[in-house]
Design a protein that fits this description.
Blueprint lengths: L1 H17 L17 H5 L3 H10 L19 H15 L10 H16 L6 H4 L9 H18 L2
Helix pairs in contact: 5-7
Length: 152
């Protein structure tokens, strides 16, 4: 029993200690001119859906939930955002070549059609990020139009 108490105390001290480890927040007050929404003048309905479903992990401005203040959850979220931005960063969209944009458009369509994005681990807590059938169709149609306009 004494060993269990010691282990519990050590775990408590470690848990409290890691709360003081600094975390890197993915937040910016400025919206760059290279942002996807500005580059393409996205219609409001699609803009709102992309912001709710994609921008937390795929832009330079994450809206962090309250539980991001608790480690190790913050590290988990930071890793998701880092990986999401590595795959696609809407904030830097305007810096991509047309070839890269076309590739990203194809990937976005594939991810949406395959129900791969947004991640289910994200939609569990962010139910507003879930695409309805109609929303998904509209976004895919819009992205397809943008993709097709690159080849013209």
């Amino acid at each position: 029993m004494k060993t269990v108490k010691i282990i519990a105390l050590v775990l408590l001290v470690v848990f409290v200690g890691i709360q003081f480890v600094p975390k890197e927040l993915n937040q910016s007050k400025a919206v760059p001119k290279t942002d996807f929404m500005l580059v393409h003048n996205v219609p409001k309905a699609i803009q709102h859906k992309l912001e709710a479903s994609c921008y937390d992990c795929h832009s330079n401005n994450t809206a962090y939930p309250w539980y991001n203040k608790i480690q190790p959850v913050a590290w988990f979220l930071e890793d998701h955002v880092k990986n999401g931005k590595a795959a696609l960063n809407f904030s830097e969209w305007g810096t991509l070549s047309n070839r890269r944009k076309a590739s990203k458009f194809r990937s976005i369509i594939k991810q949406l059609e395959g129900n791969k994005m947004p991640l289910s681990s994200y939609t569990v807590i962010h139910s507003n990020a879930i695409f309805s059938r109609v929303e998904k169709q509209r976004v895919i149609q819009y992205i397809t139009q943008l993709k097709d306009s690159l080849s013209n």
